[in-house]
Design goal:
The protein is α+β, with helices and mostly antiparallel strands. The chain has a single domain, classed as Glutaredoxin. Helices cover 29% and strands 20% of the residues. The mean pLDDT is 87.
Length: 65
């Protein structure tokens, strides 16, 4: 799994904590959602917001609630 995250985002931190608690491995990809509109983040979430989690089967979860 790939997790688009940003160090100071409380929403991304919540997702990281849940993945760590469950013992799930993921590749963190640090993106500043307000400044960094790279194609990989836009492909995962058209709003270019973090967190965005790309699952191993290709599906994307783009909300922390």
């Amino acid at each position: 799994m790939r997790l688009f995250t940003f160090a100071t985002s409380p929403y991304a931190r919540k997702v990281r904590m849940a993945l760590d608690f469950k013992g799930l491995s993921y590749e963190p990809v640090d993106r500043c959602y307000s400044l960094d509109h790279k194609p990989d983040l836009l492909g995962a979430n058209p709003r270019a917001e973090v967190p965005a989690l790309i699952l191993d089967d290709g599906r994307t979860l783009a909300d922390s609630t």
